[in-house]
Structure formats: structure tokens, C-alpha cells
Hints:
The protein is of the alpha/beta class. It contains 20 helices and 14 strands.
Amino acid sequence: LCKKNLLEQLKVHSLDAFGIEDKKAAICAAGSLLEYFKETQKRSTENINKITLEQDNEYLLLNESALTNLEIVSTLKDRSRYGSLLWLLDDTSTSMGSRYLKTVLLSPLTDKNKINYRLDGVEELYNNTLIRQGLKDLLKSIKDIERITGKISNGNLTPRDTEALGKSLSAIPSVKFQLSGLESKIIRDIDALLIDFTEISKLLQLAIVDNAPVVTKDGGFIRKGFDETLDKLVEMRDNAQSFLKQMEEEEREKTGIKTLRIGYNKVFGYYIEVTNSFKDLVPYNYVRKQTLTGGERYITEELKKFEEEILGSNEKAIRIELQLFAKIKTLLSEHIKDLQSASKAIAALDVILTFADVSKKYDYVKPEIVDSDKPLDIVGGRHPIVERVSKNQFIANDAYLDTNENRTMIITGPNMAGKSTYMRQNAIIVIMAQCGCFVPCKSASIPVVDRIFTRVGANDNLISDQSTFMVEMTEVANILLNATKNSLLILDEVGRGTSTYDGLSIAWSVIEYINNKIKAKTLFATHYHELSELENIIEGVKNY
């Protein structure tokens, strides 16, 4: 069933082209998800037209502990966005770009070529201030094409969405013009995905009024001049009041009834009202419709005909508007793939634009991405968030870790010396670099890291019956079991929460195992001054 669901959804006879024909787990997961959509959404899912297989080794793995301790998308203290890496870097102009930026930060790359592919685009925009600013201004006028495309597929597109789509697509030719002078491969690929939507954009802007309504049931969303038949009906409906005023004046003159008035209510429709004092002047062609305390209400053939035309014109106008809107939705549904490509291209452009803009604003530099077995060498590194929110000047620091003599740093110092800040700073610089962003330092040579593990702070987990010490030991065990020589490890105060000598023994043995067996690049902060002896005992350990 799962495979059948995928074949039907993707409109193919085989999954070979997507590289998942023999991936049973992937087929079961994707097929089950599609079945869930069918059961819960009860509508078309045309926007799901592609499947991509992602391997763990394509991305730098950040577990929950690392994401929390490094404050990638929210802060450790109150889980707020302010103060996180996402907050710092999110200068995006579109909703699509903002969502994609979060995805990028949660999934840094591990392919050196893909990282440089993104970095080269950031560098080109970094060096072209006028183009960068022009592009940002253009992107601000582009609404959420990705979400609107989903609404097209689901059949719940509104006139307001359609108006926003028309205006957004009209900005794409200007975006392409700005990109035409740039040469990096990522920019050229983005440009290729942005096809010409001029005809669709013109149609939507001709069809839909400005400040279009959200609902369609009351009409009023098709622009005047788009359909001749509709225009006539709308004109008849809109001119009803002036026509009635004119008829009212004519009837007063003909009858001599000065208080005569023409009105309307939902129960009786249109009527001519005459007070009792003028009843004797009522013409013979007036047909009594309703008796009131102070007068009578009448109808004439002319007024009756007018009523039928007016009420009919409103219903016909709404019906025609709905028919026209249905045709527009059908047309847009034929371009779902192109709209998806455009939304992805705009999101990617928005992210590299914000990387370039933030890098220029805060004086970041392009990192050199090297192989995993090469040294991590950061000169004049700064913590990107602390330097923005702190009232004090941030003092830059160097970091050097290799796979031989300098693979484990024992970091000591008093409380408030900045040990945790320093360790987090270097991990964040690595993440930023592997996301394809410039980094806060004078220079940086960043070896590709496969995983970043952190063991920072004292936290218990009472819901899972885990004490502070048990949480710490569980996290350390996870690191020892899953870290590789290409990982970056951040460990702070391992061994606290138990007796001094037991804690010291644990910390000592953990450093020995990581340094001698795993051989990962490690920053290890401690209050155990005895650990400084390791520099003279174990090769690869250095005191800082």
C-alpha cells in the first residue's frame, strides 16, 4: 500500500529515479505519511510531487542537548527566540526565507563542495552592496508563495491570496535582472529556477481587485473591466440607488404625493410607501402590497421588473465571479511545480542574502573549509551573540585543535572567566561555517565536522526519574558511544554531582578515552586542577 501510494502520488511507474526503490523503511514512512494526509486532509495534495532521500551523513548532526546548550533556535534560559543564533542571523525579507533559514541552522552541511557552493554566493553578494540592497528591497514585496501554492493544491485559495500572488510574481523579472550580473553557481542556479511568470502575473493583477476580500461568497473581488458581462451586472446593481432616486422623483411629480418614497426590506422587497393623508392621490396602477398604521405600501409593474433585474443581477454577478475565480484556480494548479521551484529559489536567495548582509554588518569573514583531518584554526574568534547583547566589549580569542598534539584542550580558570562562552563560541563558529555563512573572527580554517556533542550545565530530568548526576552521565555515555574522530566535543565540568575523588576519576577517565580511543577534537572545561597534569602524561592534551 505504501509503495502504491507513492507511485500514484508521484505519477510514476517506478521509484528508481528517486533513489528509494530498495529503501523499504523510506517507502513505508513516506507512503504512510501520504495515507495520513488522505485521511485527514480530505482534499488534493498536488503540491506533493517529489521525494528526496536524505542520508544522515549529509548533515552535521546536532542532538537536542547540542541545540539547547548552543542556543541555536531558542535560548537556554527561557526558550525565547531573542538571544539565539536564529535571532541573530534572521534578517530575511520573506516568510519562505525565514523558515528555510531555520532549516539551514538545524541541518548544517558536511559536504565541503556544497558548503563552498553556498559560501561563494554569500561572498559575491557580500561584495556587491548595491545589488544586495536592491534584492532585499525586492524580496520585501514578495509574499509567501510557498504557502499560497499549498492553498492552490488544497483548493482553499482566497481572492486575497491570489492578489498577493499576482503582485509577488510581478517582482520576479526585477529579481532576475538584479541577478543577471552575478556569476557564482548558486546564484545562477537560483536564477534558472525563477521562470517568467509575466503572463500569469498580468492576468491575476487584471482579474483581482486591490485589497481583495478573504471570502468569495459575497463577490466583489473581480476587477472592473475583466469581464464585460459581469461589468454590466455590477453596474446595474451599483446604480440601483440612483435609479430608485430618479424613479421616486418622477412618481412624486406624476402623483403630486410629496411624501412618497421608495424603500426595500428583505421580507417584502421593493415598495412605494404613501402616508394615509395622501391615499386619495394614489394612481390606479399602484397595487397594494402592505398596510401600515400610518399608510400603505404599493408595487408597480415597473418597480417589480426593476426588483427582478436588481436581485437577479446580484446573484448572477456573484455566480460569474465564482466561475471566473474557478478558472483562475485551475490555471494556477497547472503551474504548481513552477511555483514551488520559484518559492524554493526565493527562500535560498533570501538566506544567502541575509548571511551576506549580517556578515557585512557585523564584520564576519569567509571561512576556509578544509577536510575533516585538518586542524581547526580560528584566529580572533568572537561569540556572535554575546558581542551583540553584552554592554561590554567582547575580547577575541584564538582556538587551535588538530588530530595529533592538540586534539584535547583542558580549559581551566575561575568562575565567570568565560570558559563556557569560549567553548560555545567555537562550536557556533563551526556551525555557522558549515551552514555556509561567514563567521565572527579575523580568519578561520574549519575542518568539516560530522557531529557536535555538548555536555554543559547542571540539569535534572525528574519526569524521567533522572538526577542531575544521572543526566550528566547519560549525556557523557552518549558522547562516548557515538562520537567519531571527526566530531567536535564540548564538555563542561564533567564529574560534578558526586564526591570529589569519584568525580575527578570520572573526568580523568573520560578525557583519556576520548583522547586515546575516539581522538575527536575536544574542549574540556574543568575545576579539577589535577587534570592539568594530563598534559605531561597523555599525548594530544594541552592546558589552556
